[in-house]
TrEMBL record:
The glycine cleavage system catalyzes the degradation of glycine. The P protein binds the alpha-amino group of glycine through its pyridoxal phosphate cofactor; CO(2) is released and the remaining methylamine moiety is then transferred to the lipoamide cofactor of the H protein. The gene is gcvPB. Keywords: Oxidoreductase, Pyridoxal phosphate. Residues 1-26 have a biased composition (Polar residues). Pfam families: Aminotran_5, GcvP2_C. Its EC number is 1.4.4.2. Transmembrane segments: none annotated. It is an enzyme of class 1 (oxidoreductase). This is glycine dehydrogenase (aminomethyl-transferring). Residues 1-27 are annotated as: Disordered.
Length: 530
């Protein structure tokens, strides 16, 4: 008998259907439909063995649980599959370009993660005796040194947990400085292009917020600023300004702005969310900045998103350095010392209080210092240069087809477009962003900053190659041309290809369903035959 050499046919037949079939499971190949854990877990079993506890007396004072916890139990493979399948539905920097503006979603080198997990860093506890963590204190001090070196400042408060927390810290230091000088100014100036947390922070501390307008080129109206200072002479506490600003532009009058603020016995707070554009190129302290938070989770690569983890150290000028909050590190005879109480302060140290229970985010400190040391000063400078280069590469690639609200002037690390190019197409800014999801991209930052109608803020970061940028630009151009041709079906209900279609985001935000309840059982009563 001879061997069969025909084999089995594997190519699709000529008349094979081109539609996507409906499947029994709801899965589409490896694109799997994953139910909530409550829907398929069992409440009477668990995938692990728990020992029966010995007899004990509860110390909860009658507050112990009376009912079962009702957590679903899964076998170990089920638990693993559940979270792996969910992870496939996440967009991540490891899967594609993240064009979110003002967010700096850069690559997170795995070296940083390895360092953060070293024994002595990854396993320490905030309540450990200080004598057991000298290495951690030394690392914090080393990181603080380089933050002050890069910014040209005299002190840094390390404990704030993120950007807005850092803003609060900086403004509290400013308020403490005014109080120590016997002043009580009531007004904080905030440009129109500021991050929304800036006026919120000032208002939280009891200040009245006065808005400063922008010029036609997107930068602060310096003449309007001087007029406002004169109008409120003696009552201005400071200014909260973002530089580079949220329009992706460098404030060219920043030194003059600082001089005008200081001449009014006020302080200059700079929002450091966009520090990624100027590291190694310009030092905020040299520009007249008195306080600025630095998002370690943005500028120095630590993981960003999902609510954390964040870290927002605040650098302080010589005028504000005495008011740095507890805890802080002081150089002692035997190395760095962690100062945790007012009783340990020395002459000239006037901490305004304490921002948080412990010193800060240790894991973020390790990752940030690892990033700095692996790059070196020249590498950090190049990262800033490449961030600006990439943003301008996107700007030039799209400026002939998407609308630039402030003309074709060079931008910093992010480029701002508006929705003028969508006028009369029947496609909204939201439609356009949702269609990007079908193309495999997370949408850019939308409708922000508020000074531009239909804003689309794109920040590619220094991490992206030219090939990635070329594909992104080509995709955006294709979407624009599709909208200009009236192909509204591509946009009106997008995304079509994501695990979930377009959601009613307004209702979801205003009427969130925070607790899962089992659905009513289906009516399976048989229908009588006629």
């Amino acid at each position: 008998m001879s061997m069969n050499t025909q084999g089995r046919p594997s190519a699709p037949t000529e008349n094979a259907p081109s539609f996507t079939p409906k499947t029994f499971t709801g899965n589409r190949g490896l694109d799997m439909e994953e139910a909530l854990i409550f829907e398929f877990g069992r409440y009477d079993v668990t995938g692990i063995d728990l020992d029966v506890p010995d007899d004990f007396v509860s110390e909860l004072g009658g507050h112990d649980r009376k009912d079962t916890l009702e957590l679903p139990g899964l076998a170990e493979p089920e638990a693993m599959r559940h979270y792996v399948r969910l992870s496939r539905n996440n967009y991540a920097i490891d899967s594609g370009l993240y064009p979110l503006g003002s967010c700096t979603m850069k690559h997170n080198p795995r070296l940083n993660e390895k360092m953060a997990r070293l024994p002595g860093f990854g396993d320490i506890h905030p309540l450990q005796p200080l004598s057991t963590v000298p290495g951690a204190v030394e690392l914090i001090d080393e990181l603080a040194h380089w933050l002050m070196t890069m910014t040209g400042t005299f002190a840094v408060a390390m404990s704030p947990k993120a950007g807005a927390h850092g803003e609060l810290c900086g403004m509290m230091a400013i308020k403490a400085a005014h109080t120590a000088a016997g002043r009580d100014p009531k007004i904080v100036l905030v440009p129109e292009s500021a991050h929304g947390t800036n006026p919120a922070t000032a208002a939280l501390l009891g200040y009245k917020v006065v808005s400063i307008g922008a010029k036609d080129d997107g930068t602060v109206d310096f003449d309007g600023l001087k007029a406002t200072i004169a109008q409120h002479e003696g009552n201005v506490a400071g200014i909260m300004l973002t530089n580079p600003n949220t329009c992706g532009l460098f404030e060219r009058d920043i030194i003059e702005i600082a001089e005008a603020i200081h001449a009014a016995d006020a302080y200059f707070y700079c929002d450091g969310a966009n520090f990624n554009a100027i590291v190694g190129k310009a030092r905020p302290g040299d520009l007249g900045v008195d306080a600025m938070h630095i998002n370690l989770h943005k500028t120095f690569s630590t993981p960003h998103g999902g609510g954390g983890p964040g870290s927002g150290p605040v650098i302080l000028s010589d005028r504000l350095a005495p008011f740095a909050p507890l805890p802080f590190i002081r150089k002692g005879e035997n190395g760095p010392e962690l100062i945790e109480t007012n009783a340990d302060t020395q002459d000239g140290e006037q901490p305004f209080g304490r921002m948080t229970a412990f010193h800060g985010q240790m894991g973020m400190y390790v990752r940030a210092l690892s990033y700095m040391m692996s790059h070196g000063s020249d590498g950090l400078r190049q990262a800033s240069e490449d961030a600006v280069l990439n943003a301008n590469y996107v700007r030039v690639g799209l400026q002939g087809i998407m609308s630039l609200p402030f003309g074709v002037r060079p931008c910093m690390h992010e480029v701002l477009f508006d929705d003028t190019f969508l006028k009369d197409t029947g496609v909204t800014t939201l439609d356009f962003a949702k269609a990007m999801i079908d193309e495999g991209y997370h949408p850019m930052t939308m409708y922000f900053p508020l000074v531009v109608h239909g804003a689309m803020l794109i920040e590619p970061t220094e991490s992206e190659s030219r090939a990635e940028l070329d594909l992104f630009v080509a995709t955006m151009r294709d979407l624009v041309m599709s909208a200009s041709k009236g192909e509204t079906d591509r946009f009106s209900a997008a995304p079509y290809l994501s695990p979930r279609r377009r959601l009613d985001e307004t209702s979801a935000a205003r009427k969130p369903i925070l607790k899962w309840t089992a659905p009513e059982p289906a009516d399976v009563t048989p229908v009588a035959a006629e």
